Each structure stands twice: as C-alpha cells, then as structure tokens.
C-alpha cells in the first residue's frame, strides 16, 4: 500500500515527524536560508535575455547630436528655478511650446496627514508641466513617458535640459508610432501621483485636488524617469523597485542594460558595478550584496524613484540616474542622450504592453536574474518550519489529557491583540494634535513616538484576560492559542510573499524561529529575548543597519536610531499619500500576530 | 496542345522554307514545355513591423516576376501587412530589400490584391482552388487553366508542418497538399513551382502527392531560416537569406535566358544560408535540367521565328493541308461573312517583318480564343481558329 494512504504507515510517518520535529525544523530553516544565499550563484541565477520579439536587438542608429544644447537648457532651467523659487512654470511652458509640443500644466494640492521634516507644512501645492509630442502618422492611442522630477535646489536641472533637448530632436523625426509625453513633476512622488491620478481619472489615494483640463495621449505603454544632476556622468544607475515592492517587467531592465552596453556606458544596479568573474568568492560576495540590497529595498515597499508609482497602473517604468563619481572616464550628454534615444526607439516598436518577460524576479546583477520559480522554494522551506511545528502542536493537543477549552477562551487574547494593532494604525495620526499639545515635539516626532509608545505598550498589556474564562490558564489553552498564532502567521506571510517576496521572506526569516520555539515553559528569558528580537520593529532597525552596511557607509547607533524614526515616519506618510501597504500590513496583521505569540509566552 | 499544333505548324509552313533535320531538335525544344501562360501567387503571411523582411521578400519576388514578363493581371499578390505606410517606417512609402536603401521594392506600380486582414488561410485556399464567391473582382482570382504554369511563393513564420498566417491561424502541409490535388483534379495547372522561405520550410512540401509539382524550401526540418541583414536606419532586418540569394540569382535572368532549375537548386549553399535549402522533384515529370527558370518566373513566349520548315507528324500535315485547301475556296466568303475580320498588310515592312507581325497577331488571337472558350474540343476550336487566325497565316504565306 502507498506510503501515505496506509494508516499504519501514516501513523509511523507522523510519529517520526513528531519525534524528529526539532531537527527537521532546524534543517528546514537552514535549508531556506541556504537556498536564499545560493541564489546569488550562477546556476540559480541565469543570464538575462530580451524576451519581447518586437524590441529585438539594439539595432538602431542613434543620432542624437544636441549634447551642448541640453547643457544650455539645463543652465537656463537652473537659473529660472532659482528665480521662481520653485518650478518655473512660465519658462517651461514657453520653451516646450517653442519646441513644438502640446503643453499642459496641472496644478495640484495635497493635504499631508502630518507635516514631515522635508515639507514642514500640512498643505503641499505644486504644478506639473508636460508636453506631448504627437506621433506624425499614428492615431494617438498609445504613448511613452519621459519624466524628470523638479527637485529643490540645483538637483536635476541637467535632467530637464536633456529632456528638452531630446524633445527637440524627437520632434524632427517621423518614425514615432506612439505619442511621447515629456513630464516635469514637482515635489517628486507627490506630483507624480497627482499627475497619474489625473491622467487616469481615478482617485486612488483620496484628497488629491487637481484642476485644469488635461491633454491625453492614449494608454501609456512604458515610462522612463530620468535623474541627472551633473554635466558629465561616470555611470548610470537603474532603480527598479516600486511601490509595495512591485517591479517593472524585466524586459525594460534588459533594454536599459543592452543600450548601455551598446554605447559603452557604465551601468550599475544598487550602485554596484558588474563583475565579470563569476567563480570567485569576492564575486559571489558582490552579487550577494546586490541581491540583499534589492531584497531590503523591495521589502520596505518604498518606491525607489518616480517610476515606482507608474507600476500600479500597469505601466512598466524604471528610473535612470546619472552618477558622477570619482572615475576617470566621463561620458558627455550626447552619449547619455543617445542611450535614451535608442531606448525610446525600441519602445516605439512595441506592439503590446511589455508582458513577455518576468514580473517577479530578483537581480543579483544587471545581467543575471532570479525568477519567481527559483526564489519561492527558499520561502517554502521557512513556511515548512511552521507547518512542522503546527503538526507537532496538533499532536500534542490531541495527546494532552485536559479537556478542550472552548474557543471562547481564545477570544480575549485575539481581541486585545487586534485592538492594539488597530490602535497602532489609527492613533498616531489621529492623536498628533493631542500629543503636540502635551509634549514639546513637532508633529512628525509626535507621530513617530506615539507609534513606538503604542508598540511597546502592547507588550505590557495585561494578558490575564484568559484566566477569567473557564478552561483558560491551562496547557491546552496556550497550545491552541499557539496553533492559531502559527496558522495566522503562516497565512499572512504566504500572502505577503506572493505580492512582495522580500517582505514576506524577511519577516519569515526573523519571526519563524521565534514563533516555532515559543512556549510558556522552558527558559523564559531566552525565549523572551528571541521573541523581542524577532518583532517587526527590531527587524526594521536591523534592516536599516544592514542596508547602510551593504551600501558601504555604515551608520552609528545614534544615526541608525534617527534613520529608524525617519523610516517609521516615511512608512506612515507613504501609506497615507500613495497607499503603500507595508505599514497597515505590519500594524494590523503582523503586530497582532506577534502579540499573540507574546501572549503565549506570558501565559502563566 | 491540339489547338497550338496546327497554328504553329501553319506558321512555320507559311514561311515556306525547306525542312532541315537540325531544326528538328529546335522544334522539340519548342514543344518541351506544355504551358501557354504563367501565373504567380505570392504570399506574405506575417504582420507586424518586425516582420518587415517577409514583406520585402515577397515584394522582391514580385518585382523579379514582373520584370521577367508576368503582368499584374496574372499575379495574385497577398501581403499581410503594410510596411510602407507603417508609422514606424522612417522612409514612408518605401520597402527596401537591401541595406543602404539601394533598392526600393515597393515602387509606385505595385498592385496588392489581398492586403492586410484579407490574407487568411481560407482566402488563400479559395484562390488556389478557385472556389471564390461570384462577387470577387477579377484581380483577386487565379484564373489558371490546364496550360498554366504557376509559381507559388510563400514566406512568413513556419514550423514543422505548418505556416503561420497573421499570428492567429496556420495552414498545414496536409491542407496545402490537398489544395494542390484539388487544383490538379480541376485542371488548374500544368506545372507548379512551390517556393517557401520559412523556418523548417521543407516540411511544407513533404505531403504533396499531385503530379507536376516542384518544390523548393529555404531550410530543412529542424533548421531555422535566418534573416540576412539589419538596417540600422530603419531598425529591422530587411530580407531573409534564402530569398536574398534567390534574388541575386534572378537578377541574372532575362526573358530569353536558358538557365534551368538545377541552377536554382544550387542557390544559397549552407555556407551562405546557414540553413540547408531543400527541393523536391519526384512529382515532376520533366527532368529539372530541361526546365527553364523562365518557365515559371517569366511569361511564356510561344513565338519563335525561323526560316526553315519543320516537318511534323505526317498525318497531321496532311490534315492541315486538307483544311487549308478547303478554306482557300471559302476564304473570301468567310471573310465577308465576318466583315471586320480584315487583315492589314503594311507594304512598308519587308517579308520577315510581315511574318513576325503576322505571327504576333496570331499569338494574340490564340490567347484570346483560349480565354474566351469554354471547351477546347477540336471541333469547336479549329473552325474558329481558321476563321480568326488563318487569315494572318495566309497573308504571311502570300507575301
């Protein structure tokens, strides 16, 4: 008879699993982490290749000549920006009109939930300006976007200059089959979100006010966000992670890589160069670093550039940054312009949206990728630990002699934990006025400190509620609660990993050992320390330190703490402004789950 | 053959030269091929801008075939997409077959019969088999008969046993073989040359079973046909290798060329084409050595002027003489009965030129007769022939 269908065999198997539970759990956990670490190696990370047939190879002839003109436009723009103290609307309008584009401007206003350090006021007002280059012989059904953020100070003025020079050049060509939108957005992500919402006529984040009749150019097929702050560049960096860890189609990254190689530009990802040797240990360390950086950035759910907000509308987008570092060989504006021209010409050949290549991947380098089929087993092994532990819990529950507690005994802990989560989610922003009245802190600080206060307070909540009900306070009680908590955790982490693998994996890697090991008996201080270390807040803190370490500018404790507070504020802000999900996920789901485990620990 | 023989015999006879045995071979050569007209069906089955090269392939063959004499009325050109007017084309209204934009195969007199979404498997098979709704315009019909040599050229994306049409359907080699069999049963071709330039093209002719079909393909089963050269200005590949070299070969051919099919089989060896071109001649009755390129790529030239008489089958000569003598008496009556069937003799031309002119007119009238006649039985054709064509021969004879 079959191994699993024979009851005798099944019992033997389950007894084996229960007996060897701890070694199996440890083995599975190590296997999961080991698989993750092995993903940076060549067998698991094959070379990238262009999947879209319509884009083909890089066989176009780029002829962009206006490098100097781009610099001139950039200088003009910088001067005008300084004079206007913000985005020089009139000058941009006039220049774009002079180039032959259809110009539109979109004023927008947004109320922030709390004024953060960079903006320091509740209401943010700005204007987006964009010009549409109509395709000469095609109906305006599809379009491409080249966007440049108008940042404070002198940043990105060369980017605006290059965009205007490209617009002037593109206007003279007749081979465009899609309209091209040249967008200058103010206030970075805020302006971009306002523009996208107005363009698609939706209200995703609410409370965004914008006005004006906007010109449209059809469905946007792809977008490139450009950031350039110097006259010459030594390398080009690409940022792919978008809002909530969403990634653009891998073909767009491949396109960028192919054109950088064609024009001889140095291209980097996560700020790191490619290494040509693949078999050596330093090369492995290098690609592991790049992979970890991507995982950390994706897990945070923050868009790493203006492109991150396009992805939600199913528009593939990347951000391209020109970096000027201390390298000997510098590239001028013409080369940069040619690369962008080549990319846009290839995107022009697209017949459908980019869909042939992967949407879920990790990049240990620009020329190698790890697809979802390869990285999921790492997460699977971690969840297997939970599954094994659940199995053991079930068996212990059946073996225990006491009567089953009613499910009612579990309700108080559940309610209390979720109430704490709800408080964590709602109170900081709602209560900031009260906090600023009573304490000498600014709103942003008030919000963040409230978050931390509620977080810690949740741990100190009285957990004796369960004793009030019959059947509470027993061994079966905490086992059942742990069973529930493990199921809850497994479900959450699986859902998170499907949408944002890095978030799911990071939470799983930190929380799974503690969740599996926790029980009221046994060495309580050790288990308590383990559980505290696995809490999402500590994961965030450690993640920040690791991130700075990988970027090769390690942060000290004080700086790390500041960054931590900033990250909390950013998380809240991004949730309210753009609908970022990590904060509500952690506050409403993961934190209550962790509190349940804390409950289990403090059962007696 | 029955209608052609008397005409040719009379034509040769009317010039009244003595017969020589060396000319016998010439005559045999003359009757080597059994066709009287040529058709071409040129199909490009791919759409989308990156399949530019397939349209360029088809248009290049179209250009060659027109240059060698097949008129637009005898060409059915099917192009699945319009590259010349694609918004991505940096040179609008052109389709280039060679980089550096040397040769614009689109030109200004191209006649596309089936365009864009009309190129479907159903339409293609209807064209071949003639099962076409009565409302179809004449230019969209393949009006071939059992004396037609047809060139069928197909290009696009293919696989083992199929050719993809328009990214949404396929034609299989079985369907194609059956279509050709239908054509054979309906007497719609005399001989057929099938050329296909796709990946695994040889699989498309594996299933043919009708007689008189010769097939060429650009690659064997399991091989890909490769494209020839990209053009950086336009941004796409311009042609496929096999068709590129076939074109180079065809550029050397002129309407009177004697190059035969064996030379075409040698075009594009593996060193140039990377794939191995294949061909199939087992269904073909003649030896490829004796098949001229112009039998398929050019238009038939059935007129040869010689000053020597060639003696044909004795019975046939007697029969012709009888008819001739009989008609001599009735000639004037038949002419007057028809009124306007007068034959003009231009005194400014000399004898050989008159002969040539008469021969040309005879040829034209022969074609007309063939076009308009529903049946070709001897009883019907001969009298009509003698009424319409005979005067020309007699004039030439009397010169």
TrEMBL record, chain A:
<feature type="transmembrane region" description="Helical">
    <location>
        <begin position="526"/>
        <end position="546"/>
    </location>
</feature>
<comment type="subunit">
    <text>Heteropentamer. Part of the GPI-anchor transamidase complex, consisting of PIGK, PIGT, PIGS, PIGU and GAA1. Interacts with PIGK.</text>
</comment>
<dbReference type="GO" id="GO:0006506">
    <property type="term" value="P:GPI anchor biosynthetic process"/>
</dbReference>
<feature type="transmembrane region" description="Helical">
    <location>
        <begin position="447"/>
        <end position="465"/>
    </location>
</feature>
<feature type="transmembrane region" description="Helical">
    <location>
        <begin position="20"/>
        <end position="41"/>
    </location>
</feature>
<dbReference type="Pfam" id="PF04114">
    <property type="entry name" value="Gaa1"/>
</dbReference>
<comment type="pathway">
    <text>Glycolipid biosynthesis; glycosylphosphatidylinositol-anchor biosynthesis.</text>
</comment>
<feature type="transmembrane region" description="Helical">
    <location>
        <begin position="407"/>
        <end position="427"/>
    </location>
</feature>
<protein>
    <recommendedName>
        <fullName>GPI-anchor transamidase component GPAA1</fullName>
    </recommendedName>
</protein>
<comment type="function">
    <text>Component of the glycosylphosphatidylinositol-anchor (GPI-anchor) transamidase (GPI-T) complex that catalyzes the formation of the linkage between a proprotein and a GPI-anchor and participates in GPI anchored protein biosynthesis. Binds GPI-anchor.</text>
</comment>
<keyword id="KW-0256">Endoplasmic reticulum</keyword>
<keyword id="KW-0812">Transmembrane</keyword>
<keyword id="KW-1133">Transmembrane helix</keyword>
<keyword id="KW-0337">GPI-anchor biosynthesis</keyword>
<keyword id="KW-0325">Glycoprotein</keyword>
<dbReference type="GO" id="GO:0042765">
    <property type="term" value="C:GPI-anchor transamidase complex"/>
</dbReference>
<feature type="transmembrane region" description="Helical">
    <location>
        <begin position="485"/>
        <end position="514"/>
    </location>
</feature>
<keyword id="KW-1015">Disulfide bond</keyword>
<feature type="transmembrane region" description="Helical">
    <location>
        <begin position="581"/>
        <end position="601"/>
    </location>
</feature>
<feature type="transmembrane region" description="Helical">
    <location>
        <begin position="358"/>
        <end position="387"/>
    </location>
</feature>
<dbReference type="GO" id="GO:0016255">
    <property type="term" value="P:attachment of GPI anchor to protein"/>
</dbReference>
<dbReference type="InterPro" id="IPR007246">
    <property type="entry name" value="Gaa1"/>
</dbReference>
UniProtKB/TrEMBL annotation, chain B:
<keyword id="KW-0732">Signal</keyword>
<dbReference type="GO" id="GO:0006508">
    <property type="term" value="P:proteolysis"/>
</dbReference>
<dbReference type="InterPro" id="IPR001096">
    <property type="entry name" value="Peptidase_C13"/>
</dbReference>
<comment type="subunit">
    <text>Heteropentamer. Part of the GPI-anchor transamidase complex, consisting of PIGK, PIGT, PIGS, PIGU and GAA1. Interacts with GPAA1. Interacts with PIGT; this interaction, via a disulfide link, stabilizes the expression of GAA1 and PIGK and links them to PIGS.</text>
</comment>
<dbReference type="GO" id="GO:0042765">
    <property type="term" value="C:GPI-anchor transamidase complex"/>
</dbReference>
<dbReference type="Pfam" id="PF01650">
    <property type="entry name" value="Peptidase_C13"/>
</dbReference>
<feature type="active site" description="Nucleophile">
    <location>
        <position position="199"/>
    </location>
</feature>
<protein>
    <recommendedName>
        <fullName>GPI-anchor transamidase</fullName>
    </recommendedName>
</protein>
<feature type="active site">
    <location>
        <position position="157"/>
    </location>
</feature>
<dbReference type="GO" id="GO:0003923">
    <property type="term" value="F:GPI-anchor transamidase activity"/>
</dbReference>
<feature type="signal peptide">
    <location>
        <begin position="1"/>
        <end position="22"/>
    </location>
</feature>
<keyword id="KW-0337">GPI-anchor biosynthesis</keyword>
<comment type="similarity">
    <text>Belongs to the peptidase C13 family.</text>
</comment>
<comment type="pathway">
    <text>Glycolipid biosynthesis; glycosylphosphatidylinositol-anchor biosynthesis.</text>
</comment>
<dbReference type="GO" id="GO:0006506">
    <property type="term" value="P:GPI anchor biosynthetic process"/>
</dbReference>
<dbReference type="InterPro" id="IPR028361">
    <property type="entry name" value="GPI_transamidase"/>
</dbReference>
<dbReference type="GO" id="GO:0016255">
    <property type="term" value="P:attachment of GPI anchor to protein"/>
</dbReference>
């Amino acid at each position: 008879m079959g191994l699993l269908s024979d009851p005798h065999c099944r019992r033997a198997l389950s007894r084996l699993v229960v007996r060897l539970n701890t070694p199996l759990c440890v083995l599975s956990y190590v296997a999961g982490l080991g698989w993750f670490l092995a993903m940076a190696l060549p067998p698991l990370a094959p070379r990238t290749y262009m999947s879209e047939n319509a884009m083909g190879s890089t066989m176009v002839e780029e002829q962009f000549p206006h490098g100097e003109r781009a610099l001139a436009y950039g200088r003009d723009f910088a001067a005008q920006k300084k004079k206007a103290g913000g985005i020089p609307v009139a000058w941009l309008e006039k220049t774009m009109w002079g180039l032959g584009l259809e110009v539109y401007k979109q004023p927008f206003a947004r109320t922030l939930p709390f004024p953060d350090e960079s903006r320091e006021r509740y209401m943010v007002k700005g204007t987006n300006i964009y010009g549409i280059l109509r395709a000469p012989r095609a109906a305006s059904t599809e379009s491409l976007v080249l966007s440049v953020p108008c940042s404070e100070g002198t940043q990105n003025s060369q980017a605006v200059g290059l965009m205007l020079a490209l617009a002037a050049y593109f206007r003279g060509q007749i081979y465009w089959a899609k309209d091209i939108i040249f967008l200058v957005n103010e206030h970075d992500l805020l302006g971009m979100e306002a523009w996208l919402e107005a363009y698609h006529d939706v209200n995703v984040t609410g409370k965004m006010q914008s006005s004006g009749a906007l010109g449209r150019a059809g469905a946007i097929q792809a977008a490139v966000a450009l950031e350039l702050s110097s006259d010459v560049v030594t390398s080009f960096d690409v940022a792919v992670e978008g809002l909530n860890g969403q990634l653009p189609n891998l073909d767009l990254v491949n396109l960028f890589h192919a054109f950088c190689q064609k024009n001889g530009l140095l291209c980097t990802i996560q700020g790191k160069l490619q290494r040509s040797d693949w078999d050596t240990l330093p090369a492995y360390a290098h690609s592991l670093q790049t992979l970890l950086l991507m995982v950390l950035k994706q897990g945070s759910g923050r868009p790493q550039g203006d492109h991150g907000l396009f992805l939600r509308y199913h528009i593939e987008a990347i951000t391209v940054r020109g970096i000027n570092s201390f390298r000997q060989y510098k590239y001028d504006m013409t080369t940069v312009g040619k690369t962008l021209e080549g990319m846009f010409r290839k995107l022009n050949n697209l017949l459908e949206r980019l869909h042939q290549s992967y949407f879920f991947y990790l990049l240990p380098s620009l020329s190698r990728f790890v697809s979802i089929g390869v990285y999921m087993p790492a997460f699977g092994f971690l969840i297997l630990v939970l599954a094994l532990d659940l199995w053991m819990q079930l068996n212990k529950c059946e073996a225990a002699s006491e009567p089953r507690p009613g499910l009612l005994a579990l309700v108080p802990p559940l309610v209390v934990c979720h109430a704490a989560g709800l408080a964590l989610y709602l109170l900081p922003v709602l209560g900031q006025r009260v906090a600023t009245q009573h304490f000498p802190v600014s709103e942003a600080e008030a919000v963040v400190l409230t978050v931390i206060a509620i977080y810690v307070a949740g741990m100190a909540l009285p957990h004796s509620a369960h004793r009030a009900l019959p059947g509470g306070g027993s061994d079966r009680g905490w086992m059942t609660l742990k069973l529930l908590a493990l199921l809850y955790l497994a479900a959450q982490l699986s859902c998170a990993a499907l949408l944002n693998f890095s978030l799911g994996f990071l939470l799983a890697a930190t929380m799974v050992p503690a969740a599996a090991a926790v029980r009221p008996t046994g060495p309580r201080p050790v288990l308590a320390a383990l559980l505290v270390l696995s809490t999402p807040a500590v994961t965030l803190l450690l993640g920040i330190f690791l991130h700075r370490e990988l970027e090769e500018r390690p942060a000290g404790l004080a700086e790390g703490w500041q960054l931590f507070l900033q990250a909390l504020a950013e998380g809240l802000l991004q949730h309210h402004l753009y609908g970022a999900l990590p904060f509500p996920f952690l506050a409403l789901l993961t934190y209550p789950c962790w509190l349940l485990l804390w409950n289990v620990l403090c059962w007696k | 053959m029955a209608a052609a023989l008397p005409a040719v015999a009379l034509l040769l006879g009317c010039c009244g030269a003595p017969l020589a045995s060396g000319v016998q071979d010439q005559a045999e050569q003359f009757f080597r091929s059994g066709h009287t007209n040529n058709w071409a069906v040129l199909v490009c089955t791919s759409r989308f801008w990156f399949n530019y090269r397939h349209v360029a392939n088809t248009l290049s063959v179209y250009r060659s075939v027109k240059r060698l004499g097949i008129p637009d009325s005898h060409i059915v050109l099917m192009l699945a997409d319009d590259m010349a007017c694609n918004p991505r084309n940096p040179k609008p209204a052109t389709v280039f077959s060679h980089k550096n934009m040397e040769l614009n195969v689109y030109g200004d007199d191209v006649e596309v019969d089936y365009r864009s979404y009309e190129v479907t498997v159903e339409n293609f098979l209807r064209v071949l088999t003639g099962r076409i709704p009565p409302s179809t315009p004449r230019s969209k019909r393949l009006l071939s008969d059992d004396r037609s040599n047809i060139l069928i050229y197909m290009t696009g994306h293919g696989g083992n046993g199929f050719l993809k049409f328009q990214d949404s359907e396929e034609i299989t080699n079985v369907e194609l073989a059956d279509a050709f069999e239908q054509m054979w049963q309906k007497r719609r071709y005399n001989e057929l040359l099938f050329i296909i330039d796709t990946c695994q093209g040889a699989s498309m002719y594996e299933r043919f079973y009708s007689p008189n079909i010769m097939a060429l393909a650009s690659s064997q089963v399991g091989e890909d046909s490769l494209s020839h050269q990209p053009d950086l200005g336009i941004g796409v590949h311009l042609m496929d290798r096999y068709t590129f070299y076939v074109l180079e070969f065809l550029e050397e051919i002129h309407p009177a060329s004697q190059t035969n099919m064996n030379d075409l089989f040698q075009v594009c060896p593996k060193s140039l084409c990377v794939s191995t071109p294949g061909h199939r001649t087992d269904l073909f009755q003649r030896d490829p050595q004796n098949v001229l390129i112009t039998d398929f790529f050019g238009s038939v030239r059935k007129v040869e002027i010689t000053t020597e008489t060639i003696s044909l089958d004795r019975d046939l000569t007697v029969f012709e003489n009888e008819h001739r003598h009989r008609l001599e008496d009735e000639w004037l009556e038949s002419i007057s009965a028809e009124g306007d069937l007068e034959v003009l003799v231009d005194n400014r031309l000399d004898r050989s030129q008159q002969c040539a002119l008469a021969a040309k007119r005879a040829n034209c009238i022969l074609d007309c007769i063939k076009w308009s006649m529903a049946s070709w039985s001897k009883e019907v054709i001969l009298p009509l022939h003698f009424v319409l064509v005979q005067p020309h021969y007699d004039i030439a004879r009397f010169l």
